[in-house]
Amino acid sequence: MQNTLNLTKSQKIFVAELVGTFGLLVSATGSIVYDGSLGGVLGISFISAMHFIGIFLVIILFGKYSMAHFNPAVTIGFFIAKYITAKQIILYVSAQAIGAFLGTLFVKYVFGDYARLGLNSPNYTYPVGFFFGIEIIATIFLMGAIFLATNIKKLSPAFVSAIIAGTVSLDVFFLGSISGASMNPIRSLTPAVFTGVLNDLWIYWSAPFIGASIVGIIYKKRFAK
């Protein structure tokens, strides 16, 4: 009898991106919600550490199947750099969307309805152009780290995962209080939809795509074969 779990490449990508994005949402927003349930006593150090642990694990577990995008902006960056085809964009983003919504549902009903479910929000004490630019820069750091880590030969999967997860963690620690440090449109979308707070989505559905596209264009022109 043929093994019914013998998935095609596209199916493996879909499952990996769905489950990986679920894990990313749980670690990223779950840490914020859990801290909120405790009155914020754990703070940004805990939240950044949980980002690192969660992202490190999902990259280790699923990177070999889908290149561990878990982020529509990263998917566009990979497309521009010619790692994936236009047809694959829908495959990646649909899986990411499902995983993100399931992740937010999990956080809401397991951790509770605190801290607006980990909603990304910019700091309006800064000018709009400043925190918008910071969100672009944060995504440039992320996309740059991804291309760097995945293109250095002989790096172990654990080290690749640590570079990428560490970049996200540092972005959250140093830039989260300014721009929200989302770097990920789908991570920002689902808490906004569940809370009904949609005012800032324009930032997180534009700046990360700009940042990832900039790095994708540079990589394509300077380094891609």
TrEMBL record:
The protein in question is named Major intrinsic protein
Q: Which UniProt keywords apply?
A: Membrane, Transmembrane, Transmembrane helix, Transport
For membrane topology, the record states:
Multi-pass membrane protein
Instruction: List localization entries.
Output: Membrane
Q: Which organism is it from?
A: Candidatus Nitrosotenuis cloacae
Membrane-crossing residues? 12-34, 40-62, 89-111, 131-152, 159-181, 201-219
This protein's GO CC annotations: membrane
- What are the GO MF terms of this UniProt record? channel activity
* Alphabetized InterPro entries for the sequence: Aquaporin-like, Aquaporin_transptr, MIP, MIP_CS
